[in-house]
Amino acid sequence: MMKCPQIKDEISFGQRLASEAQRAREMACILPPGKKRDALLEKARLADLGARINGWLAGPKLAPVKAVSSGRRAI
Fold first, then answer.
1. Taking the complete model, does pTM exceed 0.70, yes or no?
2. For residue 28, what are the contacts with CB-CB under 8 A and spacing of at least 6?
């Protein structure tokens, strides 16, 4: 079985999302108001949200989830 070579990304996922958001905003500024502009602004908003969530998940303060025992037995 052949293995695919692993490629190390030069920029992080969060940085790529932030860059994509900036690019979408710049393209939206050029367009007149309408569906295409709204779609680009929504894409930028979602990319920013994704970058924020990625940063939150990768952050040092996020503790691993612990199993909670409720003391109840399954029926």
1. no
2. 37, 40, 41, 44
CA dihedral 74, 72, 63, 9 (to 10 degrees): 0
Contact call for residues 47 and 13 (beta carbons, < 8 A): no
Higher pLDDT, 8 or 52: 52
3-state SS class at 32: coil
CA distance 24 to 37: 9
C-alpha pair distances (Å), 13 with each of 41, 47, 51? 20, 11, 8
DSSP 17: H
